[in-house]
Amino acid sequence: MGFGDLKTPAGLQVLNDYLADKSYIEGYVPSQADVAVFEAVSGPPPADLFHALRWYNHIKSYEKEKASLPGVKKSLGKYGPASVEDTTGSAAADAKDDDDIDLFGSDDEEESEEAKRLREERLAQYESKKAKKPAVVAKSSILLDVKPWDDETDMAKLEECVRSIQADGLVWGSSKLVPVGYGIKKLQIQCVVEDDKVGTDMLEEQITAFEDYVQSMDVAAFNKI
């Protein structure tokens, strides 16, 4: 994962696309993740990359407070879309560490006791290192459109009902009301889900269960994180 080289137009374009439905690099508040990426950008992105420029100006306003922002700053290659190759050097260093471990030992027919012991120690170290690597949790960012019955529907109560839905692996984000015509507004609300625990079918079933307020629910955008 990563953004590529953030000092190039291509890297800034990846950052802009990544921030199209996000306010921050991770989560819903400024953090050390934003600081790490901000410091890798050489200056304000061009005006046509408005998502990246919005984020850059917002994080810049925290310049005096960046040391106190939450989280632990990681290498740049630990952030960004998973589909982009990490060109920061950290991934290559990890691969080199793995390559340096000789799993098969010497090709000599007769292996000394010392060589055998070293090979077994290195194999144990390699297995231990692999075991300590955290499992990757697949997540998705989902933008939902929740439509009321008419213009008399209490939209504040409708949103309260939606946010009352709680589940392991579900985090609600920002929301806004969007006009759809004839004085009717729909609720557009963001959420992040763990793919193995929460699906759109479950969300639709629980949201449309508030039938006094909700006419229907649609998925407006679905992006893997």
TrEMBL record:
Residues 103-130 form the Elongation factor 1 beta central acidic region eukaryote domain. It comes from the Eukaryota. GO terms for molecular function: guanyl-nucleotide exchange factor activity; translation elongation factor activity. PROSITE patterns: EF1BD_1, EF1BD_2. EF-1 is composed of 4 subunits: alpha, beta (alpha subunit of the eEF1B subcomplex), delta (beta subunit of the eEF1B subcomplex), and gamma (gamma subunit of the eEF1B subcomplex). Interacts with elongation factor EEF1A1. Gene3D superfamilies: 1.20.1050.130, 3.30.70.60. GO terms for cellular component: cytosol; eukaryotic translation elongation factor 1 complex. Residues 78-117 are annotated as: Disordered. Keywords: Elongation factor, Protein biosynthesis. Belongs to the EF-1-beta/EF-1-delta family. Transmembrane segments: none annotated. This is Elongation factor 1-beta. Residues 96-113 have a biased composition (Acidic residues).
